[in-house]
Amino acid sequence: MTLKFARLGTAGNEQPAVIAQDADGTEKYFSLTALTNDIDGGFLASDGIARTREALDKGELPEISAVGLRVGAPVARPGAVVAIGLNYTAHAAESGATPPEVPVVFLKPSNTIVGPFDAAPIPPSSEKYDYEVELAIVIGREASYLSSLEEAEDCIAGYAVANDLSEREYQIPGAAGQWTKGKSLPASTPLGPWLVPASDIDPDNLHLQTVVNGESRQDSSTSDMIFDPATIVHHLSQYMVLEPGDVIITGTPEGVAMSGRFPFIQPGDVVEVEIEGLGSQRQEYFRATARSTPGVRLHPVS
Description:
Layout: E1 4-8, E2 15-21, E3 27-31, H1 41-45, H2 48-57, E4 63-64, E5 81-85, H3 89-94, E6 104-108, E7 113-114, E8 120-122, E9 129-130, E10 133-139, H4 149-154, E11 156-163, E12 166-167, H5 168-171, H6 179-183, E13 189-190, E14 196-197, E15 207-212, E16 215-221, H7 229-237, E17 247-249, E18 270-275, E19 279-287
Parallel strand pairs: 5-17, 7-13, 8-19
Antiparallel strand pairs: 1-2, 2-3, 3-4, 5-6, 9-12, 10-11, 10-17, 11-14, 15-16, 15-18, 18-19
């Protein structure tokens, strides 16, 4: 049985839940508060996914209604958000870059994580705000100096959809570039709607796409990835300690606005990103003002 882990409720007050199918194939929501206060590193590291399956089999989790509830990011604020650049062959080509021989790694602040349907602020002075659909890895156990790809696979709790929003004018001007500036903006990493356990999905051939105002922009497959999830986790473990609950976003396919084929995001635009088996996101974009803190607007479960 495929499970989908979600966090429901207002920002900062999300409650953990799991979505499972009954015998008729109908999806139902069940509260996880009997097992954990949140879906976080502690829950994942303590075999939370296995304990959830056992509790569902025993009928120990109460069914809940999710109607009207905001969908938050499926993992509570991670300790680290690690990102991989230029990880799709066609995207490297459209960027004018040679496909990398080792993963290109950068970090994003964990406070960029927001819910998958929260309205998205465009920075006040931004003119080149860009979308990037990405497969996200969620770490389930500590990974440090791993010796094999098999060990790396065992450290992956599951997968989710991410949108790595990027301000290109901040990111790439000058000889050295400023990736951190272009990738650290408020609410620039929508995550979710669900976390799907690694045992329930094959990440190596998933269709992913981005649609902007009804127009298809990115349409590809994770089979075009240069470095697969296990390789990425193994590689990162040689340079940093990955902790349970950490999120790795694994790069984006071709079709971004930076390619010159499409316009950058404008206020009022609607961006939808989706990955097969992992669900879809929808963000409506607005211009943040210079003197206010960009907030998030709430979108309920339909």
